[in-house]
Write a structure and sequence with these properties.
Blueprint: E1 3-9, H1 13-24, E2 30-32, E3 46-47, E4 57-58, H2 59-72, E5 76-78, E6 82-86, E7 95-99, E8 104-112, E9 116-118, H3 124-128, E10 134-135, H4 138-141, E11 149-153, H5 157-169, E12 172-176, H6 186-193, E13 198-201, E14 204-210, E15 217-222, E16 228-232, E17 235-238, E18 242-244, E19 275-277, H7 289-311
Parallel strand pairs: 1-2, 1-8, 2-5, 8-19, 10-17, 11-12, 11-17, 12-13
Antiparallel strand pairs: 3-4, 6-7, 7-8, 9-18, 14-15, 15-16
Helix pairs in contact: 1-2, 1-7, 5-6
The chain binds NADPH dihydro-nicotinamide-adenine-dinucleotide phosphate.
Residues 121, 153-159, 161, 178-179, 183, 240-241, 284 line the site of NADPH dihydro-nicotinamide-adenine-dinucleotide phosphate (NDP).
Length: 316
Amino acid sequence: MEILKTLIIGSGPAGYTAAIYAARADLNPVLYTGMEPGGQLTTTTEVDNFPGYPDGVDGPTMMVHLQQQAERFGTDVRVGFINKVEFSIEAGGIHRAYTEDGTELQATTIIISTGATAKYLGLPSEQRLRGCGVSACAVCDGFFYKAQEVAIVGGGDTAAEEATYLANICSKVTMLVRKDKMRASKAMQHRVTNTKNIDLKYNTEIDEVLGKQVVEGIRIKNNKTGGTEEITITGLFIAIGHKPNTEIFKDQLDMDDSGYIITKGKTTETNLPGVFASGDVQDKEYRQAVTAAGTGCMAALDAERYLQKIEEPVKS
Ligand code: NDP
């Protein structure tokens, strides 16, 4: 069986950028796309903050560009899903990965770029309007609601941070927290309560997102009193957490309490030699396409250096 120099798992900005760099370094990478080829950006309409696109670009188009760029240098992009891995713990050891149809792959380095999945409330009306006013990324999409009224759901640090971010752009932000307190750090809570145009509503959940083609409002419910009310908004931001896609790496790689892969210092190295992680799968802090791409580049460079090191003849 051929032993690949580099296997990349995942096809978001991190995976494709790792592929561009690995291919240019003659590592002949094979990239498995996963269930959602192109990753989270394929569910976004407009991307306005990726450098190099002065007029913006829609998410799916950008991902096609990244794939074409990776293929131009010889990346073997395969549509498929890796559902099992067996990592070697030895330096220079061979790692194994298995596709959903049972094909075994062997590789000296593996770059994990499987990303994270934003959590949604699960309401049918919310799912229907995703990308049409419902978003899980304020930094990506907040600008489209400039001077408009929006709402955000969640009471953690992400929701608090995104609420204050949106408050700078939008005329009013209604923040909906399902409990009678927020989970966010005290400092973040103070920022929210000190921002004049954030209307904070505790014990409040969304009953339904209103609007046929685009979001026009929400019906909210106080879970203590049972009272409902409708408010008019044009944008709804869901900030109730992300789930890193790391299920298949459990018990093999070091992860934090939320399941994000831990990388060493400023590198993309995991606790196992030859296994690297890039993008949202190891970053719950920034979660931007451009930061994911940056760490994808780092992972390819780390993999290249690792291969050079293990291939070096032993000096006598
Ligand atoms: P968290 O898991 O910390 O918070 C999720 C929030 O969403 C909670 O308030 C939770 O409510 C609420 N929630 C969950 N499900 C629902 C639902 N179905 N309906 C309504 N509300 C819901 O996620 P975050 O993304 O905020 O943060 C993840 C991690 O990243 C944390 O460790 C955080 O500290 C960190 N982080 C740090 C930042 C920083 O330091 N600058 C910035 C952003 C994140 P409940 O409390 O009721 O469960």
